[in-house]
Amino acid sequence: MKADQKLAELGYTLPEPPAPGGNYLPAKTVGNLVFLSGVISINEDGVMTGVVGRDRSIEEGYAAARHCALMHLAVLKQTLGSLDRIQQIVSVNGYVNTITGFADSPKVINGASDLLIAVFGEAGRHVRAALGVAALPRNAMVELQMTVEI
Questions:
Q1: Of 59, 70, 50, 55, residue with least CA distance to 7
Q2: What is the separation of C-alpha 132 from the centre of its chain, rounded to a whole number of angstroms?
Q3: 43 burial via Cβ count (<10 Å: 0-12, 13-18, 19+)
Q4: pTM
Q5: What span, in angstroms and rounded, lies between the C-alpha atoms of 42 and 19?
Q6: Tell me: the pLDDT tens digits for 56-78?
Q7: CB 11 within 8 A of CB 123
């Protein structure tokens, strides 16, 4: 099944990719790899803000990470013309805005990983880092960075 069809079957619509917030590219292709700049958690209401473990739950963070993955797929579709050019997801680096000592960042970033595996199957499995950080741009709950093979 094609990636767009799988997204629709799962009930997801890709958002409009954001314009870069600085002097950088949203995606850069080197050989058969596409490196994606970090995207923050944004939904139809705007930036999904807050600190997981203080005023946001793991479940809210999970949803924020899923929105980051959807944004990356939107950037990839804009960059590649089709998500079907993706051979596999190589790596995901997830950053969670958390309280000091928060130990469940991997549970939050699972929101992105679970979506990628649901859409791409085994090709969606990837290496990953899931880090808790003291702050993110615009007080976002999650920031995600990815690399894919085309």
A1: 70
A2: 15
A3: middle
A4: 0.97
A5: 13
A6: 999 999 999 999 999 999 999 99
A7: no
